[in-house]
Amino acid sequence: MAAAKIKKGDQVIVLSGKDKGRTGEVVQAMPREGKVIVEGINVHARHRKPSQENPQGGIDRNPAPMDISNVAHVTKDGKATRVRFEERDGKKVRVAVKTGEVING
C-alpha cells in the first residue's frame, strides 16, 4: 500500500463535482478506502423525524466522504499541486511538485 499523500489537516481544493474549485481542510483521511472528508465540502442533508433523543427533529447536514482523486493539495498561492515524496536530511517528506516546498506533516 502506498503512503498517503493527503493527510488530516491538509488544505485541499476540489477538482471535480458540485463543489469544484472550493477549498477546505481535511477533517478525516481514509487511505484504505481512498476517501477523505473535507470540512464544509460535499455536505449531505439527512431529514430526521422527531425521536426521544431529538424531540425537535429537523435536518442534519454532515460532510460525506469523497474520493481522494477528486482533491488536490493547495499551495500558499491557492493553486492545486501534486505531492511527491523526497528524502531530505535523511527523512522522507512530502513535497509540493509545483513549488518544491516541504508540506508539514
From TrEMBL:
It comes from the Bacteria. InterPro entries: KOW (IPR005824), Ribosomal_uL24 (IPR003256), Ribosomal_uL24_C (IPR057264), Ribosomal_uL24_CS (IPR005825), Ribosomal_uL24_KOW (IPR041988). SMART domains: KOW (SM00739). Keywords: Ribonucleoprotein, Ribosomal protein, RNA-binding, rRNA-binding. Residues 5-32 form the KOW domain. HAMAP family: Ribosomal_uL24_B (MF_01326_B). This is Large ribosomal subunit protein uL24. It comes from Stakelama flava.
